[in-house]
């Protein structure tokens, strides 16, 4: 498996990974019609996003052979600072991390997270945080195994006309090294 920086050419495979991951992890939490419509809404957005190459943002893919099996995006915590104020001292955030369900529990997620957390730390974007949809046991287990813990912050996100409660988790100091 290889971890590398994502490019716009990876967008279609990233969408396939995201779609499969969402359908497996959020079945029963998110309406099936919303899950079925993911590729249409996501592909163009990912291509546009990757083409921007914004400062203080890192998009990675995990490849196995010629295929993208996972991806992650890391940046500054958008709830803490605007882009022009982002920099050392502002918390970092895992904006997204998805691995195709056929490759769950085989190290791709941890490898992506290791590289992203290393980068965030080097950029001075600490502590590292992630928002997780409540009720997703797959997500909760992954983040807790990595060393994240709920910090009490909560928000609601809208998706497909429905509201979903989310909890923020913060990486515990030196947990990723364990």
Automatic annotation (TrEMBL):
<keyword id="KW-0012">Acyltransferase</keyword>
<dbReference type="InterPro" id="IPR000182">
    <property type="entry name" value="GNAT_dom"/>
</dbReference>
<dbReference type="InterPro" id="IPR050832">
    <property type="entry name" value="Bact_Acetyltransf"/>
</dbReference>
<dbReference type="InterPro" id="IPR016181">
    <property type="entry name" value="Acyl_CoA_acyltransferase"/>
</dbReference>
<feature type="domain" description="N-acetyltransferase">
    <location>
        <begin position="1"/>
        <end position="176"/>
    </location>
</feature>
<keyword id="KW-0808">Transferase</keyword>
<dbReference type="GO" id="GO:0016747">
    <property type="term" value="F:acyltransferase activity, transferring groups other than amino-acyl groups"/>
</dbReference>
<protein>
    <submittedName>
        <fullName>L-amino acid N-acyltransferase YncA</fullName>
    </submittedName>
</protein>
<dbReference type="Pfam" id="PF00583">
    <property type="entry name" value="Acetyltransf_1"/>
</dbReference>
């Amino acid at each position: 498996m290889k971890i590398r920086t994502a490019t716009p050419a990876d967008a279609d495979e990233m969408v396939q990974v995201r779609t499969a991951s969402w359908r497996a992890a959020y079945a029963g939490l998110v309406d099936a019609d919303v899950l079925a419509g993911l590729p249409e809404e996501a592909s163009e957005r990912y291509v546009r996003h990757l083409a921007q190459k914004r400062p203080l943002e890192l998009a990675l893919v995990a490849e196995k052979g010629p295929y993208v099996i996972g991806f992650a995006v890391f940046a500054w915590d958008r709830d803490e600072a605007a882009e022009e104020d982002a920099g050392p001292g502002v918390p970092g955030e895992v904006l997204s991390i998805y691995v195709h369900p056929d490759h769950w529990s085989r190290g791709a997620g941890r490898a992506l997270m290791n590289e992203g957390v290393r980068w965030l730390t080097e950029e001075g974007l600490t502590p590292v945080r992630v928002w997780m949809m409540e009720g997703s046991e797959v997500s909760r287990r992954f983040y807790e195994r990595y060393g994240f813990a709920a910090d009490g912050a909560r928000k609601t996100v809208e998706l497909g006309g429905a509201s979903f409660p989310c909890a923020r988790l913060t990486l515990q100091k030196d947990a990723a090294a364990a």
